[in-house]
Amino acid sequence: QVQFVESGGGLVQPGGSLRLTCIASEVTFSAYDIHWYRQVPEKEREWVAEIAADGTRTNYLHSVKDRFTISRDNARNTAYLQIDRLKVEDTAVYYCHARHAMFGSKFVYWGPGTQVTVSS
After folding, report:
1. d(C-alpha 54, C-alpha 45), whole Å
2. CB 64 within 8 Å of CB 73
3. How far is C-alpha 63 from the geometric centre of its chain's CA atoms?
4. Residue 1's pLDDT band (boundaries 50, 70, 90)?
5. Who contacts 98 (Cβ-Cβ below 8 Å, separation ≥6)?
6. Rounded to an integer, what distance in angstroms lies between the CA atom of residue 24 and that of residue 77?
7. Residue 65: which of 42, 46, 48, 45 has the closest Cα?
8. Distance in angstroms (rounded) separating the CA atoms of residues 92 and 25
9. 31-68, pLDDT tens digit by residue?
10. Rounded mean pLDDT of the chain?
């Protein structure tokens, strides 16, 4: 069964850092572009970052590009989202989204999410 599972969320003070992890199983991880989204209650899910299947290209939501870093290790079937200088408004559930680089919407997966709470 194909799975993408996030971890690494938690309660952090403003200004702190977190590294979120997305681990894939039962799938050729290197064939998938990986995206990170976040969602707060009663709002639409918001795209924040993406990394190409081979790791050569990244892209960020403009408002987070100076604090978020997306990366991946295809040998470990893992993607990461490093979040620095956390702000209260970063509080959200963060989701890993995988989309096949060649076949697009035919093969897409979402993880269950990991909660990030930024509070003093």
Report:
1. 25
2. no
3. 16
4. very high
5. 4, 24, 27, 32, 33, 34, 35, 107, 108, 109, 110
6. 5
7. 48
8. 25
9. 999 999 999 999 999 999 999 999 999 999 999 999 99
10. 97
Reported confidence tier of residue 105, pLDDT bands at 50, 70, 90: confident
**63 residue type, one letter:** S
Cβ neighbors of 90 (< 8 A, separation 6 or more) are 38, 64, 83, 116, 118
Q: Which of 14, 63, 57, 58 is nearest to 38 (CA)?
A: 63
pLDDT at 35: 98
Residue 97 in tokens: 């989204």
Q: How far is the C-alpha of 69 from the C-alpha of 37, rounded, in Å?
A: 13
